[in-house]
From TrEMBL:
The keyword Transport does not apply. The lineage of its organism: unclassified sequences, metagenomes, ecological metagenomes. The keyword Cell membrane does not apply. It comes from marine metagenome. The chain crosses the membrane at residues 17-36, 48-68, 88-107, 119-139, 186-209, 221-241, 253-272, 293-314. This is Uncharacterized protein. Keywords: Membrane, Transmembrane, Transmembrane helix.
Length: 317
């Protein structure tokens, strides 16, 4: 199946602007919020960091698809592509950590509204946000030279001390160790069960199950769901890096990533919005909250279905 790889460069050009430009905006808002001591602005910047962390996943994947589509083309340096991919992997990791810390700060603020803007989480978000911005700058600089050799040759960029090979090292570590793939498969399934289990419990409470229990009790479980989600993302990225050429050609892989991203965004609703949080023991949720709960269950069910079907898609041919 050639549709996904051939469209990779166009999709990547579209997606990569969101995290690269968005980090500048989010960090600026966060700094302004700290200076002005504006809680609303701070929460807005945290939500933005979280959204960017989620968008980093399809952005990185589209970059791998772009690599398979253009590598080997005349005037395109494979070494430069490798350096760009390695830099992108590091930026992806730091942006993901920033997003996770932002979610934890939002979750903690929901439970402790008077939390200081100088809390440990706020300091960590600021620190990782600054590092992420620096890494994004490097990623963008290298990537800009791939299709525009007129602004600088690959040799000039690589001679600046930029090292590559981390992605290849991860790939070799997974493929050359017979225990790595099955061990990560086991962890992947456990993570999915943990994440989906928490999502299902939270959504069913909103839909009316266990109505005598206040929503705040279920809200306490959300970090456990985040842990399952992180296990899924980490192990899934190892799978993808080790065999990216096959994954980007699978018909069922893009829908899974799309549903995963949207499903993760939907969880933000149950983390910070009042519709669910205000539900006490015996309270019935408003219609909007029930719609979100049903939609969230459908999205994550779709992630599981497409994930289980991936082995049967083969190489997408």
């Amino acid at each position: 199946m050639e549709f996904i790889p051939s469209s990779g460069p166009h999709l990547h050009i579209l997606l990569n602007h969101f995290p690269s430009v968005g980090v500048v905006v989010a960090l600026g808002l966060f700094l302004a919020a700290l200076y002005l001591k504006n809680t609303t602005l701070q929460r807005t910047s945290l939500v933005l960091f979280l959204l960017l962390g989620l968008l980093a996943l399809p952005t990185y994947i589209s970059g791998a698809a772009a690599r398979w589509a253009i590598e080997g083309t005349i005037d395109i340096s494979s070494d430069l592509i490798g350096a760009h991919q390695d830099a992108a992997l590091l930026a992806f990791i730091f942006l993901g950590i920033t997003g996770c810390l932002s979610w934890l700060a939002l979750w903690q603020y929901r439970r402790t509204p008077g939390l200081s803007d100088r809390s440990v989480l706020s300091v960590l978000v600021l620190g990782f946000g600054i590092i992420t911005l620096l890494l994004m700058t490097q990623v963008g600089n290298i990537g800009g030279h791939i299709n525009h050799p007129e602004i600088g040759s690959a040799e000039e960029v690589l001679s600046a001390g930029i090292e590559s090979g981390q992605t290849s090292l991860v790939e070799a570590s997974v493929l050359n160790n017979p225990w790595a793939w099955p061990a990560m498969e086991a962890a992947h399934f456990i993570g999915m069960a943990l994440g989906f289990g928490v999502v299902l419990l939270v959504a069913l409470r909103v839909l009316g199950l266990a109505r005598n229990i206040p929503f705040a009790a279920f809200h306490r479980l959300l970090p456990l769901g985040l842990l399952g989600f992180l296990v899924n993302v980490v192990t899934g990225m190892f799978f993808f890096i080790a065999d990216s050429g096959r994954y980007v050609a699978m018909d069922g892989f893009p829908p899974k990533i799309i549903l995963l991203t949207i499903g993760a965004v939907a969880i933000i609703y149950f983390t910070i919005f009042d519709d669910a949080w205000d539900l006490g023991g015996g309270d019935d949720a408003p219609v909007k909250a029930k719609v979100m709960a049903g939609l969230t269950i459908l999205l994550w069910s779709g992630v599981i279905v497409f994930g289980r079907l991936l082995p049967y898609y083969g190489d997408g041919g």
